[in-house]
Amino acid sequence: MSKSLEEREEFWAKVTDILVKCDRNEKVLGDFNGWVGVQRDGYEKVLVRKVVSEKKKACLDLLSANANYRVQRKDIFKDKLKDAESTYEDAKLRAKQCVKEERMK
Fold first, then answer.
1. Smallest Cα–Cα separation from 35: which of 47, 43, 50?
2. Where are the coiled-coil regions (predicted)?
3. 68 phi and psi, to 5 degrees?
4. CA 99 – CA 76 distance, rounded (Å)
5. Burial (0-12, 13-18, 19+ Cβ within 10 Å), 8
């Protein structure tokens, strides 16, 4: 059930008032299926319908999974590097102990 044109215009006028007060660098998120535009350049009453298709959702899911995989992979490499460093230090200590034992004999 759609709102009357007057109610929609009133709503978008309020949204525009809020957006005008926002800093240009601020990002405003939401589902704005209606009139958009802050600048008075003749396009302030352009009706915009935003529909995200299943294909786009799948792409976003894929990108998200790829980003998560990269983060996990980075963490794994950090852990392996720490393990390798500790193994190297352990081997160095064992070698020093062996040399000391050989000298004591």
1. 47
2. 74-101
3. -65, -40
4. 34
5. middle
Contact 32, 51 (CB under 8 A): no
Cβ pair 37, 48 in contact under 8 A: no
How many distinct structural domains can be found in the chain? 1
Structure tokens at 20: 């005008």
CA 94 to CA 105: how far, in whole Å?
A: 17
Q: What is the pLDDT of residues 52-95, one digit of tens each?
A: 456 667 767 777 777 777 767 777 777 777 777 777 777 888 88
Question: Against a cut of 0.70, is the pTM above it?
Answer: no
